[in-house]
Amino acid sequence: MFARLNVFTKITLLFVALLVLVLFLYTYSNRESVRVIEHEIQNNTMNHLSTFADSVESNIYQLSLYGMSIGQDSSIQEYQRPDYTDVPYERVKVGSAILEKMNLYNAASKWHSTITLYFPRLQKVISTDYYAYIPYAEDEFSKPLSKSWAYKHNQFEWYTTDPTTAIDTPGKSRLITKISFPVHHLINMLDQNKLNNKGDPFMFHPEFGLISNSSGNGTLTAIQSKLKEMSLQGKGGFTTTLDRTEYYVSYIESGSLGWYYVDYVPMQQILGPITNSRNLFYASIAVLIAMSVVVLYVLYRSVQLPLLQLVKGTNRLSTGDFSVRLHHSSRNEFSLLFARFNIMAQRIQELIENVYEEQLRRREATLKQLQSQINPHFLYNCLFYIKNMARMKNEKAVVAMALNLGEYYRYITRSENDQATIKEELNMVKNYLQIQALRLERMHFTIDVPDDMLHKTLPRLSLQPIVENAIIHGIEPRTEDGHINITGYHTDEICTITVEDSGLGMTKNQMQELVDNLNKPLDGNMGCGTWNVHQRLSFLYGEDAGLSYEHTPGGGVKVSITWYNNINE
C-alpha cells in the first residue's frame, strides 16, 4: 500500500511519523523525569518531617523520663516522712530543695515545662508555676488518669504515679507527677523547621484541629479539610490539588502526643523549570509544525502539482493525444521542463501527422496501382474478343464490344473519384454481360438489387472482375447453358452483393487455395483481378471487408462482396 503512494505523500507521512516519534519519546522522557523528581520530593519531604518528628519526640521523651524518675529522688522520699508532721519547718525546707531541683532541670532542658507534684497522703502540692496557687483537690484524682499526653487549654499534660500501678486509682498513690508544656514550644520548632527546610509544617488532630507555625496561611485550612476526609495511617502521603495548584502532603503520627506531624510541598514550585522546559518544547514543536505545513504547502504547489500535471500530460501522450500542452506560470525548473515537453509533444504530433499523411499517400498510390492493374486486364480481354469477332465476321458483336469499351473508358476517365455507386457499377456489368451473351448464346443473367441500395458506393470496377471469372472459369468450360445471378442486400452497417453462377465449380481444396491466395502477396502464379478487388476493399474498409466463396446447390460458385457502409456519398 505504501509503495503505491506518490513521493510527496510518502515524504509527508515520513515527516508525520518522525514528528510523532519525537513527541512520544520526549513525552515519555519528560514523564519519567517528573516521576523521578516527584518521588525524590516525596522522599525528601518525608525525611524532613521524620527528622522534625524525631526531634519533638526526643524532647517529649525527656520530659516523660524525668516525670517517671523524679519520684525516686531522695528528697521526694524525705518530704513524705511521717515525722515531719510535728516539724513543719523541715518539710518546708525539703520542699524548697525539691522545687530548686525541678527548676534546675527546667533550666537545663530544651523546653521549659511546668512540673507539679501532688502528694495525696499529705494533700500538698509543689509546682514550678510561681504565678499560680494550686491547691490540692481530692475530686481531681477520683478517676483514672490518662496514660498518654493530653491536650488541654493550649498545652499538653502528662501524669505519672508512684507507684505506677496506681494510675487507675491515683488517690491511693504516694506521688502524682504532672508535667505540662505550652504549644508555643511546638510552634517554635515548626518555625525553625520551616526556616531550615523551606517547608510549611504543622500539627493536626482530627478532634482538636491544627497547630501551625507562626506564618501559617489559608492553605493549611484547605489541607486540614482534606486530612479530616481521609483515613490516616501511622505514616504516609498523598497528592491533592488546591486552587489549581498541586501539593504533596506527608504526615507522621506522633506516638506520644497522638497528633500528626504534617508537611506539604507545592509540586509545581519545584517542577516549574521542567514544566517551563516542556512548554517551551511543545511551543517549539507547534512552531515547527506550522513552518512544516507552510513548507509542505509550498512544496506541494511548487513541486507536487507540476509533477501531477506532467504525469497527466505524459499519460495523455501515451494514449495518443498528441495535442496536449502544459502551462506553468511560475519561473522555475518546471517551466523549462514544461516548455521542453510542449516542444517534444509538438514535434511528435507533427511527425505522426507526417507519417499519417505519408501512409494515406502510400495507400492512395497502392489503390491507384491496383486499379491500373485492373484496367489493362479488362482491356486485353476486350481487344482479344474484338479481334476474334472480327475474324468471325460478327459485326454486331464487334459493334457491341466497341460501344461497351467506349462506355467503359468514358466511365473510368470522366472522374478522379475512386468510388462509384452500385448503380454505375451494375450498368457497367450489364453492358459486359450483354457482350458476353452475344458471344455465348447459352449464357443468361439476372440482376436483382433493391433500389434503396443503388446509391451506396464501393470502389470502381469491383464487380466486373468477379463476373468475368464466373463466365471464364464457370460458364465457358461447360457445354450446357449457364446462368449468372447478381443479387444485393444491406443492413445499417454492412452491404453485400453476391455473384452466383451455375458453372463448373471448384473442389474444396481449390476453393481453400483461392481463399488463402487473397491475403498473400501478389505473384505471377495467381490471377490479379479478384486479388485486387479483395485488397482494395480491405484497404478501404478494414480486414473484415472483402471477398468470400462458397459452393452453390447446383454445383457452381457463389462469390460475396462485403463492405461496411461507412463511406457514402
Please give a structural write-up.
One of its GO terms (molecular function) is phosphorelay sensor kinase activity. Keywords: Cell membrane, Kinase, Membrane, Phosphoprotein, Transferase, Transmembrane, Transmembrane helix. Residues 301-353 form the HAMP domain. It is found in: Cell membrane. By secondary structure, the protein is of the alpha+beta class. The chain has 4 domains: 23-181; 187-271, Profilin-like, CATH 3.40.1840; 322-371, no CATH class; 449-564, Heat Shock Protein 90, CATH 3.30.565. It contains 12 helices and 17 strands. The chain has helices at residues 7-69, 74-79, 88-108, 184-197, 218-229, 267-318, 333-391, 395-413, 422-439, 464-475, 508-517, 528-541; strands spanning 114-119, 124-127, 150-152, 155-162, 175-182, 202-205, 209-212, 235-242, 245-253, 260-266, 419-421, 443-448, 457-459, 482-490, 494-501, 546-551, 557-564. The strands form 4 sheets. The protein has a 5-stranded antiparallel beta sheet. Strands 7-6-10-9-8 form a 5-stranded antiparallel beta sheet, with helices on both faces. The longest helix is centred in the N-terminal third of the chain and has 63 residues, at 7-69.
